[in-house]
Design goal:
Blueprint (H helix, E strand, L loop, with lengths): L7 E6 L3 H12 L4 E7 L2 H11 L3 E5 L7 H11 L4 E6 L4 H10 L3 E4 L3 H13 L4 E2 L1 H18 L10 H11 L4 H8 L3 H15 L4 H10 L5
Parallel strand pairs: 1-2, 1-3, 3-4, 4-5, 5-6
Helix pairs in contact: 2-3, 3-4, 6-10, 7-9, 7-10, 8-9
């Protein structure tokens, strides 16, 4: 496939050759995408990411030698600009949280990869998060069920308009410095808003905040 010089460079990491071949064929039909390497286990994925410096890593969560979550953590620690999309068969929220904490920006179910993968790549290269529709629906359903069980009111109403703006930008992956520039605020003010948001929503980390934003439909 002929590739543009500014193509998005992609590393595929999956221990199943058939899955990798299918993903490669899907990606290489798209203009502006270039598969620069394939890894069959987690350690090979880490090594190839260091050698090839891809823009995007498509990472299977169940990998031999080093699982996809730990491989993601090592890749992102070495290259924070690498955008990792996790592929998984698991709908359990714990897998989503672990992936986000490791630095992944997208979480896709394998059975919807063909439909979602291109949109996910575009989203994460633009600094946004992406979740398969089934994951988004599951998270929203769980959230509404928790509210109903607790008889709780929607804590989103506790946020000020400015805090809601900051919440969305944080969930989209923007740094405090980026948010300060976008909203014409001081860095200290942004940090204060973030602290207040976490306190009001009873959240404790950026991954939890991202999941909250997905549940609320604030980000896709």
């Amino acid at each position: 496939m002929r590739v543009e010089t500014d193509a998005i460079r992609i590393l595929l990491a999956d221990d199943h050759t058939v899955m990798r071949n299918g993903l490669r064929l899907l990606l290489e039909r798209q203009p502006g995408l270039q598969v620069v390497g394939e890894a069959a286990d987690g350690r090979q994925a880490v090594d190839l990411a260091a050698a090839e410096n891809p823009d995007v890593v498509i990472m299977d969560i169940a990998m031999p030698q080093l699982n996809g979550v730990e491989a993601t953590r090592q890749i992102v620690n070495r290259n924070p600009n690498a955008a990792v999309a996790i592929l998984s068969m698991h709908k359990d929220e714990s897998y989503v949280i672990r992936s986000l904490k490791a630095g992944a920006r997208a979480y896709l179910l394998k059975d919807s990869a063909e439909a979602d993968l291109i949109a996910a790549i575009i989203a994460i290269t633009e600094g946004r998060s992406f979740f398969s529709p089934a994951i988004r629906s599951l998270l929203k359903e769980d959230y509404m069920h928790q509210l109903d069980e607790l008889g709780a009111e929607d804590s989103y109403e506790l946020l000020t308009n400015r805090e809601r703006e900051v919440l969305q930008l944080v969930a989209e992956g923007k740094s405090n410095k980026d948010i300060a520039a976008l909203l014409n605020l001081s860095l200290y003010t942004v940090e204060t808003h973030r602290t207040h948001i976490l306190q009001k929503l009873n959240l404790h980390s950026a991954p939890e905040l991202i999941l909250y934003a997905v549940r609320k439909g604030i980000i896709s």
